[in-house]
Amino acid sequence: MPKVVVIGSANVDLTVRVERLPQLGETVSGDEFYTSFGGKGANQAVAAYKAGAEVRFLAKVGRDKNGDAIIKNLEALGLTSEGILRDESHNSGVALIMVDRTGKNTIAVAPGSNRHLTKEDIHHAEADISWGEVLLIQLEVPPLTVREALRLARAHGLVTILNPAPACPLPEEILSLVDTLTPNEVEAGTLTGIGVEDLNEATWAANKLLESGVGQVIVTLGERGACWVQRDHVQVFHSYPVEAVDSTAAGDAFNGALALALAERRPMHKAICFANAAGAKTVTRKGAQDSLPTREEITYILMQSQG
Question: N or C, which terminus of the chain has less Cβ within 10 Å?
Fold first, then answer.
């Protein structure tokens, strides 16, 4: 099986469905509340696993009820919890999510123990990293942790994917360790200082990121698909038409499926199509990990698109 190492956050998600997202200072009344499991790291690990990868997930949760529940959920899904550390001093991460009737969302996160996954923890997990073929990491753990993980992955010959979310400026010493960077429009803008509202601006921002040492950039554009940019190549991939219910974890589905596809040695253009299909299926269901598609579901969308 293709081997994917995912390093990142694991949270409990508290979600309220509302007719529309509130403006600043406004209170809106919701019509549904539910608790589920999330965190970009855990979501992407589950996404890669359900898409067909053997996954090792490295994270840190609190020694609390939420931490127990996170581990129990991952094990129930079929993932090993051997790479999950317990933090004796900090609670597990929690995300507060609002989703409107069109599936758009806003998210606020209390990182808790995720912020205390250290570079020393990563160094101690070097054997797990060296086991993999692809490393997938995000920015819900500290920057020094991200840098150490990318450094070790490069040293052991892994393909490195950084999903720069939540968005924050990154130094070239981190960007130069990334084979594939996967920002959305907002994240590409934050990384470059360029407002990204259309394809031309996405390409411009991606080229600026290439100048910082990134190998290649995939800007995800939501319902407009994705834009793949290399130094001498730009290719646009259209999204698959679906009825959106909840966009939570769509980006995580894309990244997890992309990691699996690259670990399978698929050409990048085919890997992006596979990842786009995973993201499309995800938005048709509510929740984070509950909405992530199986390999069969992803393949079905691809087959439908081919007529």
Answer: C
What is the rounded distance in angstroms from the CA atom of residue 161 to the CA atom of residue 268?
13
- For 73-101, how does the pLDDT look when each residue is reduced to its tens digit (9 = 90+)? 999 999 999 999 999 999 999 999 998 98
Q: How far apart are the first and last CA of the chain?
A: 29
Q: How far is CA 249 from the centre of its chain?
A: 7
pLDDT digit string, tens, across residues 134-192: 999 999 999 999 999 999 999 999 999 999 999 999 999 999 999 999 999 999 999 99
What's the pTM value of the predicted model, to 2 decimals? 0.93
Tokens at 281, concatenated: 């299926």
Strand partners, 86: 61
Query: Which stretch of DSSP H or E encloses residue 274?
Result: helix 268-282
| Residue 72 identity (one-letter amino acid) | K
Give the tokens for residue 87: 């933090």
DSSP H stretches of helix in 28-163: 40-51, 65-77, 119-124, 126-131, 143-155
- Helix and strand totals (H; E) in the chain: 11, 13
Active-site positions? 252
